[in-house]
Write a structure and sequence with these properties.
Oligomer: homodimer
Number of strands of chain A: 11
Number of domains of chain A: 2
Order of helices and strands of chain A: EHEHHEHEHHHHHEEEHEHEHHHHEE
Number of helices of chain A: 15
Largest sheet of chain A: 9 strands, mixed
Distance between the termini of chain A: 20 Å
Strand order of the largest sheet of chain A: 3-2-4-7-1-8-11-10-9
Strand content of chain A: 15-25%
Chain lengths: 407, 407
């Protein structure tokens, strides 16, 4: 089924650590912003999909997270479905909302991504990251990462006082350096570029611009990733109101943003000559939308670490395999470049409250396509793409979603 | 949208405590059984919805539970979506699978409900129950339940070394006794009846038949609920393969069971004269199916406690308000009676591994409609109904699903 859904409104909180706010406050802020942006009232919302990843492990609130948030806003009766796919939970909520509307089941559906990831006891946040991998394989994975790090002459303290995902990314980064001559400086260019974009985004967790040198001089987390090359721990929420064609007409939306395609794949153990989930998902998303990489004006990718953005350029076909390092160095992915990537600041600088991330990408891209991104506006942007991955399974992400939006 | 989906195959594990099995083993057993029952291979499955409630809090496995289970079976690439709605997680997986197929998105979708609820540290299981309520209101709720219990002259140790849901059910039971003259003996009749049904079900956690007297003589958990009136803690999994009309024809299913309707509502603070979520959901389900309570041949209800079954009779319109006690006493809901309820043994005796429960109801009813329930077969059953509720919000369940099946 080809999706046929319109983003009628978007909203999000600033991403940051909110010691005094919980799921309810964060969720309500994003929902109210999205509903108001859509020009509807909460009573128009016929169903809600709520993506969250870590609340059970961080706060103890499991099972009925969406109901708890919406009930506090006075909303009941409507079907509320909690969905979870690690860092792709927000995109999962969106894809389900779009599917419901496209199927003609509802005219107006809310998609919310929300996360309360920070905790004074950091081990709770780390437990949430571990829970996004196969916990039966954690020990084995730690040993493997340690061996790989030692072989590369890197820090071998895998998973110690940091998300193990950073060890996974560092390992991929070292392999990219070995295979293609990519440099630590090029990874730092990603972080520096995104810090520039983040400096223009009032909802970014970090709004300070960093030079390449400053990125390289930050504390080493795991070789070759310095702190500024790793996405931070933070809290926040993002929401989108998804409507049918009929409802979009009723609302008289002047600059409608529609879903050209949204494709999800689960991780599998792919051989070297088989496509990974980003390739699978993006190729299908391009095909469904009748577009190619060259048609995309603005992109948000899942830069949970700086090398992930470089690898994403290649997987998404924005540059040739192995040329991701040169691509960022060329300025093509910088605001003002040919095809800006992560104008929001990305996960590195806007922040990465995991369950909210996928929908925050949609907030950024919808605003870009409607020409309301202020200082970080990509002029004349008509087509946008988001890539959002979650968890780890096999040698891939557990869940991957690529979404193409059109104005 | 009217659902248009066929149950091509069902399967489940026996429900019980499995100290040596985890999500993967339990999930695989149910999936393999359902896939084999449908006469398909795993390669035919185009997408999966996986309902689980407690794994994060009990085992630490969060976020990507479905991917972990399916990957261990060699399944990747396909979209896997983890859904959660407390004890209604299994029904949520089913309703999403049915919606996808009805929308023409897929021909073959797997719905799995799986739960590893038992743990040598019982506090972990209790934390999972608490996570299905609004955790910000737990303390207040405990105080309120204590006050209510004291006012009724009952045990006031709310939530102490037991699921707080039992205190909630006990409070509802005492109100039903006060309002309608329902007796503890009538609650015991439910447990005794379901123990008889469970004695005929090789997949029931408890297969011993109990007399009304034996039920009444069991240890008191919270007035008026003895242990046999409370569903046990256990583990297990249940699955259904949902297919389109086209796929059903291809498979040449001889006794197709179709979804006549499946309706979900979220809890809200309803006034006394407003319908609760069971009433809302069942009325809509009847209407969509073009049926009434009198048309249903066999029913599975959410008897997490014995009084819940009595109240469900009334909410579903199987008897008049206040007459639930007399209804069970009449034998109408017993195997051989006019409209047998919980022929599987229900949550009380078949067991209640929360995320698996909704789909286990579908397993029982599908088999009943296909005439393969052995000693507990309801002769000539053509129409079946399941009621599955989850969590608590306001004065209602957080999520409620009523599903009507037709053969």
């Amino acid at each position: 089924m080809k999706l046929n859904a319109t983003i009628a409104g978007v909203g999000m909180t600033r991403f940051m650590k909110y010691p005094d706010k919980g799921l309810k406050e964060l969720g309500a802020e994003a929902i109210n912003a999205a509903v108001s942006d859509a020009g509807i009232s909460m009573a128009d919302v016929e169903s809600a999909f709520v993506g969250n990843c870590a609340a059970g492990l961080v706060t103890g609130q499991e099972s009925v997270r969406g109901q708890v948030i919406l009930h506090a806003m006075g909303v009941g009766k409507i079907p509320i479905i909690n969905v979870e796919n690690a860092c792709a939970s927000g995109s999962t909520a969106l894809i389900q909302a779009c599917t419901m509307v496209s199927a003609g089941l509802y005219d107006t559906v809310l998609a919310l991504g929300v996360e309360k990831l920070s905790h004074e006891d950091k081990s709770k946040s780390f437990a949430a990251f571990a829970g996004a991998m196969d916990i039966d394989e954690l020990q084995e994975m730690i040993e493997e990462l340690k061996r790989a790090a030692e072989a590369d002459g890197a820090d071998a303290g895998a998973g110690q006082n940091r998300s193990m995902f950073m060890d996974v990314y560092a390992s991929a980064a070292r392999a990219h350096m070995a295979n293609y001559g990519t440099t630590a400086e090029q990874f730092a260019m990603v972080a520096s570029k995104n810090s520039f974009h983040g400096s223009l985004n009032p909802r970014a967790q970090f709004q300070q611009e960093l030079s390449v040198e400053e990125v390289l001089n930050e504390r080493m987390i795991v070789e070759p990733l310095t702190r500024a090359m790793c996405s931070p721990i933070g809290d926040g929420a993002a929401a989108a109101v998804v409507v049918s064609e009929k409802k979009a007409r009723e609302l008289g939306i002047t600059k409608p943003v529609t879903i050209a395609s949204s494709v999800m794949h689960s991780g599998y153990n792919h051989a070297d000559d088989e496509p990974d989930t980003v390739q699978l998902s993006s190729r299908e998303a391009y095909e469904e939308a009748g577009l190619g990489p060259q048609d995309i004006d603005v992109v948000e990718v899942h830069d949970a670490s700086a090398p992930a953005e470089i690898i994403a350029y290649e997987q998404l076909g924005l540059c040739a395999p192995g040329e991701g390092g040169a691509h960022v160095a060329s300025g093509a992915s910088r605001l003002g470049g040919r095809q800006p990537v992560n104008t929001s600041g990305g996960l590195l600088r806007k922040g990465h409250p995991v369950g909210a991330t996928g929908l925050a990408q949609i907030v950024e891209l919808t605003e870009q396509l409607q020409g309301r991104s202020g200082k970080r506006q990509v002029e004349g942007a008509r087509i946008a793409m988001a890539q959002n991955g979650g968890g780890k399974k096999g040698n891939d992400a557990a869940a991957m979603v690529v979404t193409i939006l059109r104005s």
